[in-house]
Amino acid sequence: MNGTSALKLDARYTYKDYSSWPEDERWELIDGIAYAKAAPSQSHQSLLLKLARQLGSYLDGKPCKVFIAPFSVRLNADTGDDTVVEPDILVVCDKSKLDGKGVVGAPDMVIEVLSPSTAKHDRDVKFKLYLRSGVKEYWIVDPDLKLLTVNILHEVGYVSRSYNDQDTAVPVEVLDDCTINLVDVFEEM
User: Which of 97, 94, 55 is nearest to 77 (CA)?
Assistant: First the structure.
């Protein structure tokens, strides 16, 4: 399965449908269309854990929480409830958005680690989705190029900045005084 293959091209689904699917299958819904999620590679998981570990260490004892996939995010639960994503990493600072099953509404921060099957989807479809949903900070990590693109939400849309594997203090805009060391993240990649 590739990350952009649809479950059924002519069908539209909601969170209710999504909740009834087998737990051992990974899917995302975007505007009612179901997309299969392939199992991540070893390097993808290693990079994800290094990022989550740095964020988790910073957030220890603070009100914001970090979560890693699979963790459902219902981006439009108050309207169509037909968009459920599972970002690789997310940060939520508003506890009222946590419902025991996942997040209801936009997380403060989302990180997607690109893989060959999801790169175009993460850079295009999810970029537009996270922008439209009001995700304040969207990071796109390219393990092959050892590149991070940080997208910060402003009135005009996302403003992007790029960082590489030599950057030791990448600021996390939604978390005061938090920085990520990309040398450690991309080490041994």
Answer: 97
> What is the CATH classification number for the domain harbouring 136?
3.90.1570.10
What digits encode the pLDDT tens for the residues 168-183? 999 999 999 999 999 9
Range of the domain at 153: 41-186
Total structural domains within the chain: 1
- Residue 138: how many CA atoms within 13 Å on its side-chain side? 24
* pTM reported for the whole predicted model: 0.92
Domain annotation covers residue 30: no
Which phi and psi angles does 184 have, rounded to 5°? -70, -40
